[in-house]
Amino acid sequence: MPTGPREIVTPFRPIPLEVPEGMKPNEFFNSAENLNDLVHNNGLLQNPEGLLLYRKAIGHSNEFDTSIIYNTSRSILDPLGRPVRRTQVPGPVKNVWNRMNQIIIEYMLERYPDPDQHLALAGEASLDATWPLNLPGVPSIRMLHNHFIVFSKAQLRDAGLADADNPNLTDGGQHSLFQAYMRDVYRAFFDELDLQILTPCRDGSCRIALTGYPQGLPSWEVQGGAESLKKPGFWKEYDVLLKGFTDFYRTFFGQVSTRNASLPEGIHFADLVERKLLFDNDFLRTAKMVRDRCISDPKYANAIRWQPAFKQLIYRNDAGKLIVTISQNSIGNAITELLGVVVRRIPDAEAYARAEPALIEKLVEVRQRLIEADLGEGIATRQWGAA
User: Fold this and answer.
1) Domain boundaries, the chain
2) What is the number of alpha carbons within 13 Å of residue 152 lying toward its C-beta?
3) What are the C-alpha distances in Å from 39 to residues 45, 105, 127, 149, 184?
4) What is the per-residue DSSP string for 53-74?
5) pLDDT tens, 52-97?
6) DSSP code per residue over 26-59
7) pLDDT per position as a tens digit, 208-234
């Protein structure tokens, strides 16, 4: 069987909502009004911290697919004022957030114990308005959420190969600015971070054999596996990776924007940035290359994401190990595409209805675990009760 990225087809039931005239779908679907609809039609659980567990109406997988969103749509009306990274979430909220993540991941691994049969992943994405602000709808999608997804490997094996040249598949390898021009300094910077539970993967050891992904991305094995996710220390290290990434990203694009710029405000590892980045010739040479192109190529400059844009995920590899990876989200790839899975969603209410009962059964099961752990109260919809 050839190794390569797969494109699967996932049916969904069309959402019976009318997008107001003059709005783009991505503007409306992440508005306060749509979040209200999401709670009542797809909401599973919510808590006083503002975290909402919900069924994905247009999901990646009908095997298992759910999300937690930090629903600040009513408490913070300014989209640019909402937390969009876990490092921006208030401490008490993040404690609940981490515990919810741990329980859902534990459930997925218990329900799908065989890595040969199922690909399990959980992760989050930057939802900053980091791409051009003149494009309609961008600020409205600023809302932090996590994905929890399981794919059948049988479905992946049967799926056709995706176009390997699709730039959305990954921004590692040939598509990433960081990997193409600053691979050594990027890895050296991460190697300086203080990590005990997370240990760097050997090149290629973390890939999913079926797809050959992730490609070119720094990855770490979780020592102790799922049990380590019950430790606050793991989640602190998960934050350290994100802090290190945002320091690298902000420093680099600060140099692109302004030659010989000072350190960005609020940097997490100032000494490390000064030692490893601001005196590194490859780092500064690449910044100059991008800056020069921005000056001469307006289309290229308009596509730059000046603020940190990322995908960070935890997934189970073929050997059953839990792996953490982080990606420069420079091109808008979906979180599944970091692992070589391209999802083509099609409206097909009948096909979705056949998968829906088993999906809801699992979502209600994992919700019950969260309720028992005092992580929220169930939400009743037309399809399921509150408990």
Assistant:
1) 6-378
2) 11
3) 9, 22, 20, 20, 45
4) EEE-TT-S-SSEEEEEEE--TT
5) 999 998 899 999 999 999 988 888 877 778 888 888 999 999 999 9
6) HHHTTSHHHHHHHHHHHEEEE-TTSEEEEE-TT-
7) 999 999 988 889 999 999 999 999 999
- What pLDDT shows up at residue 135? 58
Long-range contacts of 277-284 (CB under 8 A, 24+ apart): 277/185, 277/189, 277/248, 277/251, 277/252, 278/251, 280/185, 282/181, 282/182, 282/184, 282/185, 283/182, 283/185, 283/252, 283/255, 284/255
pTM assigned to the model = 0.93
CA–CA distance, 245 with 193 (Å, rounded to integer):
10
Question: What is the model's pLDDT at position 331?
Answer: 54
What would the pLDDT profile of 203-213 be if each residue is shown by its tens digit? 778 999 999 99
d(CA 290, CA 263): 19
Q: Please, how many CA atoms are within 13 Å of residue 211, restricted to the half-sphere of its CB?
A: 32
Beta carbons of 79 and 140 less than 8 angstroms apart: yes
**Separation of alpha carbons 47 and 53, rounded Å:** 9
Dist CA 142 CA 79 (whole Å): 6
Both tokens of 331, joined, read 């091109």
- Report how far residue 52's alpha carbon sits from residue 67's, in angstroms, rounded to the nearest whole number: 8
Kindly report the backbone phi and psi dihedral angles of residue 15, in degrees, each rounded to the nearest multiple of 5, phi listed first: -75, 125
For the cut 50, the answer to whether the pLDDT of residue 174 exceeds it is no
Measure the CA–CA gap between 110 and 225, rounded to whole angstroms: 13
What is the rounded average pLDDT for all residues in the chain? 89
